[in-house]
Amino acid sequence: MNTLLSTDAVARSQRLAYWTDMICNVYVQLGCDPVRPDESEDFEGSIRQHTLPGLDVSVVRSGPQKVLRTSGHIARSGDDYFLVSIQAQGRGVVRQDGRDAVLEAGDFALYDSTRPYQLLFEDRFEQIVLKLPGDRLRSELRETQALTATTVSGRQGAGHLLLGMILSLIHI
């Protein structure tokens, strides 16, 4: 099933609040602020969500923003997911566990919704995001905390192979 959510659906003055609600519904409970507060009324974003058996894949296109998953968000929700952000356009930063993964086009990083994290986008961007059940990934991988907020290149090796598979999934 494919779903398109967009800030175009609401008045300009309500777009940032609508965006925050959208990302909380699609991903996990989060906070979101524009990087430049004077641009909150000009905020634009869309999420194209692809739901596949056992996997949610989405394509996010948006303006500059800072996304926060705090201890408070975690305490108020039982969300247990691993998310993989694949940078398609622009530049992004994933912060978790004392590390920063800087993502350029083709790079990706893993982060865990059961611990605080930040996502930072200084300019317009596009990302492909995979949402994976946390308990399932933890049963397959050891020491997942050592894997979070680490940049993986999608331009070579296993990262390139994974990126190719994900891109073919979203074009189904």
| Proportion of beta-strand residues | 35-45%
Largest sheet: 6 strands, antiparallel
Cα-atom radius of gyration: 15 Å
Total helices: the number is 4
Roughly what is the average pLDDT, rounded to an integer? Answer: 89
Low-confidence stretches: none
Query: SSE order, as H and E?
Result: EHEEEEHEEEEEEHH
Task: Give the termini distance in whole angstroms.
Answer: 10 Å
In brief:
The chain has 172 residues and is of the alpha+beta class. The chain has helices at 15-26, 71-76, 134-140, 157-170, and strands at 2-6, 31-33, 45-52, 55-62, 65-69, 81-89, 92-96, 99-103, 108-112, 117-121, 125-133.
Description:
The chain has 172 residues and is an alpha+beta fold. 23% of the residues lie in helices and 39% in strands. It is globular, with a radius of gyration of 15 Å.
Question: How does the SSE layout of this entry go?
Answer:
Blueprint: E1 2-6, H1 15-26, E2 31-33, E3 45-52, E4 55-62, E5 65-69, H2 71-76, E6 81-89, E7 92-96, E8 99-103, E9 108-112, E10 117-121, E11 125-133, H3 134-140, H4 157-170
Antiparallel strand pairs: 1-3, 2-5, 3-4, 4-11, 5-10, 6-9, 6-11, 7-8, 7-10
Core attributes:
globular; 6-stranded antiparallel beta sheet; 5-stranded antiparallel beta sheet; 172 residues; 39% strand; alpha+beta
